[in-house]
Protein 1
Amino acid sequence: MVGITALGLLALSLPVFASTDTPATSFQTGWIRFLLTLIILIIWFVCASRRKKEIGGWLLYYYIRLYIGAIIVILVIVGRRDSYLSEAWINTPDLYPFFLLTTVPGLLLYCAEIVVAEKLRRSRNYAYVPILRYILFANIVSSLIAIAINDKYFEGSSPGFSTNIMTMIWPIIWIPYFYFSKRVKSVFKNRDWLSG
């Protein structure tokens, strides 16, 4: 049952590509879905096979999702870099600050999450866990603000709307994990995790 749940959560963490009516894009979408499914299965297998290791199971999945997310964020920023320049908003300059409010805080919080999570992984110092939780809570607040701004000024139709929903879902999942996980306490607080 845990494996099925993990597979479902892995599927949610990667972007979903909608199919279109044209045969060429349908073929490309089919290959993309196949590759995503293959990647999901590989990640699931790696996490499941390392579940008895110190950084394994759900904790390993957290780190894999974090680093894959960083790659996706970089690709999106590079692909949409012109959107972050004020010249791109020359027709609607009043919306530019609101666009920045919906994107920049989330990006900065994601960078902070990566830095703190990596320091936690390397040092195994439990002092970073509460900081990571605060960042995850701030991510929820940032996402709620971005959703409200998108709904009011961009009529909820901007591409960032679904991204803001996803950036809110992941902290909601990981906050309880970093509060109640026996593995987190054992690896980072007690430092008594036994590899088996």
Note: The radius of gyration is 19 Å.
Protein 2
Amino acid sequence: MSEQSDAHRSHAAITMRLKRADGHLRGIVEMIEAGRPCLDIAQQLHAVEKAIAQAKRTLIQNHLDHCLDDVVGPLVKDDRRSIDEFKEITKYL
């Protein structure tokens, strides 16, 4: 596996998640056009919103875990404490 593909190994899963969300969103448009109840539509919109947020979170965390390390390079444990804490705190976004 190349270094580029290793750094972006989650992209395939993110793409699949976004394609499912896209199909789901198209279904919601059809629901609206068909006059389905607002509660049903809101529930489905919430599901799409969560799927997109998770895709974004995965992308950002993967970027921090791999791309940031490539830029910073190898550091001794004490020197990377700030970077490791930064990466850890982003999990709470």
Note: The helical segments are 3-7, 11-33, 38-72, 81-89.
Protein 3
Amino acid sequence: METIKNYLETMFANMPNTPEVKKAKAELLSMMEDKFNEMIADGVNENQAVGTVIAEFGNLDELAADLGLAKELRETHEREESKPRRFLRMEEVEDYLNVMKGNGLLIGIGVLLCITSVTWPILFEFLLRGQVGDGLGVTGMFISIAVAVALFVFAGIRGNDWKFLDKELCQIDLSTADMVKSKKRDFKVPHAIMIAVAIMLFILWIPTAAIDIDIVSNCLFYFVGAGVCLIIYATTVMGSYEKVLKLNDSKTISGSYGKDKGDIVYVNKFAEGVMEVYWPTVTCLYLIISFVTMDWHITWMIWVIGAIAHRLLEVVLAAEED
């Protein structure tokens, strides 16, 4: 029966995501299920039953008039011809996700090396006084920057094969979307932990910076660098999942593949964009206000206010269900 449902999803994937199409899809599924159960009751094996059901109900062109979808099907064919989409197999999507995960780590480490490169002159000045210390410090700084640049270039080369995702219209099927959603759900907790640890590292540099010893206060660069590295990796990986899940045309049935149950659909792209940057913006405001005022015992209230405001925005900007 699962094979029939997957076939039905493929049939309707590019159809408009309208109440009429959803109703017709549900009716056709009911007919296919009835036929399948009837054949199973008559002693037909499952494979033969599936094949018969698909042969009888598997051509949407023949069923469109009976389902009242002639107009929608015609418009779908015209859209497919005028704006064809590149289909991505599950293996291709998995390769892309692995590349982006690796690139997130490479870029994160590169940024960490850039931020901490300034610590080498201070370190060698502390360990070796004089021109030898200065020379080794400058050498260490440039080596760090050189390695960072190499990591950036390597990451860029690895990502070149996937630039078409930003230029071409692409599409994934239901099983691929389910695979990506599963990976995204599994990554939500690590993502939250990495962001939380990064914020904690940003906060820890305050007492370190107050210590008037170069070698100790130098640690603030490592705190900040490690925090930025974690944020880059976490956002790169999560961003790759979200990008794949948004490949399908949002106006079609397949456009709903990327949404989990309970996901909120917003009234327009602008509202969706606002909600996507909401928490990063709150985080930036929290850090800026906290660092400027140094009232950490009070600024935590920003999170409480932010949570209330987020819920209100969800209610106001959410689209009405069909």
Note: The CA atoms of residues 155 and 210 lie 36 Å apart.
Protein 4
Amino acid sequence: MESDREQLLEELDAIDAIYPDLMDRKVDDSSIILIKVPQHEHITIQVSFPQKYPSIEAPHILEVIVSNSAKRQDLYDIKYLQNLFQEVMDSNFHQGSVCFFDFLTELDAVLYMGEEEAANDESNDVGRVNRLELIPTDPFEGWIASDPITDRASTFMAFAAHVDSEAQAFAMLERLKTDTKIKKCAHVMSAWRIKVPSERNKDQVITYQDSDDDGEAAAGSRMLHLITIMDVWNVMVVVGRWFGGTHIGPDRFKHINSTAREAVLRAGFERQA
């Protein structure tokens, strides 16, 4: 059986291979490292690995450093980030199992930073603006919402809409994401099923169906399976999850499906022949 040290070194080697050039091992025994947060490289964290990690004790966040070059650096509360990162670390840790890679993956989901929201507000993408002109200004126009479900500080809420083309579906989704509260979701998962008459042969139909997990593995495909067994068409359903820092395991899929089904039914969809 591998020792704690052997498991730690193997884990760090694997992370170094996946995220090259992001990690700086400060001491020979790798008990303290500096690593840039993947996808958020302007944030560096200093992490201490206890001698009894992973058998008994979780790693400790010693320091959070925000680069001076980060946009709107004043938006960052370092103390808040340090506490948040430690909560995410603790929620991923289970005695006997390494957790640092899962921790880094989860950070990408929970970090919705102010400069990203500011960037989204800028008109720096003409194509995106043109797509948004296809739908009304109100982000929620055309959407029917479920009631929210809150479980261990995570909140789930679904939205469903009638759509007649993939272009319309994507444009409505883009507009929905401009809402301030939706921007703060850790995940905005979606699924859609659309069928339209063929332009060449009006007696034939063309179908489109797909999904997007948005970082919540397998969530989108489960939503697509839901609307498939409901046998509804020309529908897009979106579920937003606001993450509260605590993992809730498989229960998250129950809440995703429950809110999605409620939104689809509220939107008036019925089984089609």
Note: The two ends are 58 Å apart (CA to CA).
